[in-house]
Amino acid sequence: MIRVLPDQLINQIAAGEVVERPAAVVKELVENSLDAGARRVEVELERGGIGLIRVRDDGTGIDADELVLALQRHATSKLTSLDDLQRVATLGFRGEALPSILSVARLRLVSRTADATHGWGVGGDGQLDGARPAPCAHPPGTSVEVRDLFFNTPARRKFLKAESTEFRHAQQALERIALSRFDVAFALRHNQRRVWELAPADSARARQARIEAICGAEFVTQAVTLDESRMGMRLHGWIGLPSFARTQADLQFLYVNGRLVRDRLPGAALRRAFADVMHSTHFPAYVLYLELDPQAVDVNVHPQKTEVRFRDAGRVHDMLFGAVHQALRRVRPEPEHHHRLTLATQTVPASQPAQVSMHYDPPQSAGPESMPSTAVAEAAANYRLPTPPAAEPALGHALAQLHGVYVLAQNRHGLIVVDAHAAHERILYERMKTQLEQGGIPAQALLVPETIALHEDEADALEARRDELYRLGIDIDRAGPAAVRVRALPSLLPLGEVQALIRDLVHDEERRESLSHFGQALEAQYRVLADIACKAAIKANRRLTLPEMDALLRDMERTELSGQCNHGRPTWVQIGMADLDRLFLRGR
Question: What is the pLDDT of residues 382-395, one digit of tens each?
Fold first, then answer.
């Protein structure tokens, strides 16, 4: 038998999509306040929002004769036609939030318009109580009070977490909204205690202070700003440097026309933008705002509107990837903003900055194991001793080499420690990418071509990509059913790495997958270049002279993305003078 469901049950079903926990109620009510033009929103919670959620604003208010209508399904002031639905410019529009919340809680709605002498209130427990709106004292604006969430649906209530957990989710929901509306003041109270209050942020300094209050001071010091317009879109905000990579995706905020979204397309574009500088197990941090024509995005594809559909997904992807990728590439070594290595020492007052002086005598003679790579040797040939009238470079000047692995340098901030292999790897990688864009990687022919035995399908894969590999400086041909012959390699690759490079191309699953998409994606070719750079970079225990170390530092300062190697590891750290002073108890 087919029957029409009662309104109360319909509302409770709708509540299952809209009201998952107290945080969802906070989000819906605060977004309604913002759509009403509020300039200040106060949120008060009790027992994590399970006992009470009260949201008060100073918005336009609701007329007395429309209060009951506001609590009915599909009643909204935000849409009047299909055209409005295609150009949604508000946070809420479906008219489902208030009746859905009412169906699972005790709700009271009180509002006053600017021209009214007093406010009017209406409400009910699970459903409207049927009474007409009653007059009451209330300043201009609206208050919504929600008590005993899920009091009439115990099956839903038992799925709620501890009160502290529910409060944390509600707080995070309000913080996400506060990041999207710098022009609005927000206040949060819990169990009659003030948690935080944010004043309107009407200047760049104030906006940065709000970001710091919500995302933390370290994010602000480890972030660069971005503001770029192209293709009819604008992208602006803050991007965490790769050195601020996170082990979880807890600091990723992307707003599309003021609405926080968790969508696969923007997420993929941003991950791709960081791919060259971040380890695969880490996540970037960002607070970004994408603005575009409302007609170019459909926000009506998810009940909580956290997913969207772009009418031209390719342009949006290219905008996000291109703008963020270029912003990261513009970053150069800046020790005062770079991640510092904090030494765990006894806490003592910091002394005046001390002058650190170290002496290093380069070896008088060097065997084959101490010779630098060709690229570093060429850079060292142009080395000039620093003069005292000269400006100090960002990474200072080399002092010594530690265990054949780390380069130690001094700058005005203190001590710089460089992982020589990681830094050289990035330099070579970026150099080869530039060469690839200019036509191809310079190659050197082998005096005696080297034959490498492989499985037949592996040899087939290499042979199929012969032309693309040639652009990377790798010249191969078939030497039999299960073998290839290598005739030339990139000029910077040591001859002893021939076998390793070819076998990595076909044995490693990720590289083999890249090989199969060689002609379709530049990233596939970049993975091969990264492998070449890793094999060609300075190896551990290779002795470098001071001019060679300084040449490496200067190359780092000129190279894009030099703060991380191709695998996302840091290439250098700054140890400040204050940290060194504390280590040695200076000024105690």
Answer: 545 555 576 789 99
